[in-house]
Write a structure and sequence with these properties.
CATH topology: Methylamine Dehydrogenase, Chain H
Strand content: over 45%
Number of helices: 0
Order of helices and strands: EEEEEEEEEEEEEEEEEEEEEEEEEEEE
Distance between the termini: 7 Å
Helix content: under 10%
Oligomer: single chain
CATH class: Mainly Beta
Number of strands: 28
Radius of gyration: 17 Å
Shape: globular
Number of domains: 1
Length: 291
């Protein structure tokens, strides 16, 4: 059964479940980051210190440090246990749209409206000398579970695959007819999923970059996607106020959940049993995936 919490007074732009599956973190245009206890549904902590909306979130594998991407052009580094702001990493000239970490939690990447991707140490925030580029806003970043590749999705309608280590040129993946809003990668490192404003989710082969499938079911922009840990199901949410549950093998919609407000982001618990969705009005919706 679907439940709803009035989590923020403005849109929820980002959701993140901690690796232990115990806490949900929400990022909003009300300038707040909130930490929720998943079992009780109670608000544990508010992280204050942003003067602009927050969009992207990433947590280290040990669950101790949170990184947030903000419209104040910085990535902020937080102690998740007490909410202390540890550092503001400044490497962009415009809104920071997205942030991600390598699986070992040592390196962070941030993508911005300034069309660049910055790399930095997740330990101390020290910037790398390498800056990667797109020809549009960089809206989504994901690293493969094996730590080999960084994928970036942009409003220039392309996805780029970069080596996490090394300096070889990126593989440019084309196929969408509008900007890319989110990315997901299968746990076996084989498949990349991209959510686009062209109303589709596309499936790509990670190694070759070839398109494997197009999932069509949304009537407006697809804003967020999340895969279950077993890679069997994909949840997509859109500006059409709908969440779709897809069977990845058959590429068919097995469930449609309707809402009253455009949906912006989605996250799953590590066991894949609970879905969290954030909407344009600051409402947080959640339900068991099995139902």
């Amino acid at each position: 059964m679907k439940q709803t919490i009035s989590a923020h007074i403005s849109r929820i732009n980002g959701l993140m479940v901690t690796p232990d599956g115990e806490s949900l973190i929400t990022a909003s245009s009300d300038y707040l980051i909130k930490v929720w206890n998943i079992a009780s549904g109670e608000l544990v902590r508010e992280l204050r210190g942003n003067l602009k909306p927050i969009r992207g979130l990433a947590v280290t594998p040990d669950g101790k440090t949170l990184f947030s991407a903000g419209y104040d052009t910085t990535v902020k580094m937080w102690n998740l246990a007490n909410g202390e702001l540890l550092k503001a990493i400044g490497c962009h000239d415009d809104w920071v749209q997205t942030v991600t970490l390598t699986p070992d939690g040592k390196t962070g990447f941030s993508g911005s409206s300034d069309q660049t991707i910055c790399s930095w140490s997740a330990n101390n925030g020290r910037l790398s000398s390498t800056t990667l580029k797109h020809d549009g806003w960089v809206r989504a970043l994901k690293v493969t579970p094996n730590g080999r590749w960084l994928f970036s999705g942009s409003w220039d309608e392309t996805i780029k695959r970069w080596p996490v280590k090394g300096s070889e040129k990126p593989l440019v993946i084309k196929g969408h007819s509008n900007g890319i809003n989110d990315l997901a990668i299968s746990s076996d490192n084989q498949r990349l999923y991209s959510a686009s404003a062209d109303k589709t989710v596309k499936v790509w082969d990670v190694e070759s970059g070839h398109e494997c499938a197009t999932l069509q079911g949304h009537r407006r922009a697809v804003q967020g996607i999340a895969l279950t840990p077993d890679d069997k199901y994909l949840v997509s949410v859109g500006a059409d106020k709908v969440a779709l549950i897809w069977d990845v093998t058959t590429e068919q919609i097995i469930q449609t959940i309707k809402f009253f407000t455009p949906l912006l982001c989605v996250a799953l618990t590590p066991n894949g049993q609970t879905v969290f969705v954030g909407d344009e009005n600051g409402q947080l919706h959640y339900w068991p995936l099995s139902s």
